[in-house]
Write a structure and sequence with these properties.
Helix 1 packs parallel to helix 3 and helix 3 packs across helix 4. The strands form two sheets. The chain has a five-stranded mixed beta sheet with strand order 4-1-7-5-6. The longest helix is centred in the middle third of the chain and has 14 residues. Strand 2 and strand 3 form a beta hairpin. The chain is globular, with a radius of gyration of 15 Å. Helices cover 32% and strands 31% of the residues. The chain has 162 residues and is an alpha+beta fold. It is an enzyme of class 4 (lyase). Its cofactor is a divalent metal cation. Pathway: Isoprenoid biosynthesis; isopentenyl diphosphate biosynthesis via DXP pathway; isopentenyl diphosphate from 1-deoxy-D-xylulose 5-phosphate: step 4/6. Belongs to the IspF family.
Amino acid sequence: MRIGHGFDAHKFGGEPPLILGGVTVPSNIGLLAHSDGDVVLHAICDAILGALALRDIGFHFSDQSPEFSGIDSRELLRRVTQMMVDKQYKLGNLDVTIVAQTPRLSNYIESMRKCVCDDLQSELEQVNIKATTTEKMGYVGRKEGIAVHAVVLLMSEKANAI
């Protein structure tokens, strides 16, 4: 087994759409980013890369590279999933916490879970996504941006082969 933790935060200020967990969330503002700004998928990618000891999302998909300008973060997650498969690991489970004062996300959580499961080639019961606020404290509470924590457990496929 391997455990990885991912964290990412993006500042509000970009043009819509606001994309979280592969889902377009109605908003009059987006997140500032080199890619599509999907802070949820970025944190998930970092958690998986961390569990695999493969550094971080910025190492593999540099914000200095024109190739990744505006890229759909689901494509990044699919590439990271392939790295996981290539290293002979599979998802045990994933737990994600979105920290956002705005917008309200409860109506979009199940759609996010389905997108993430599709890209991770996993079952719905392996992926949990939840959202919370900071009770108006800090940069999230002041509605300056969104932060996300992700924790992943990866299981070795090699162990099953023995």
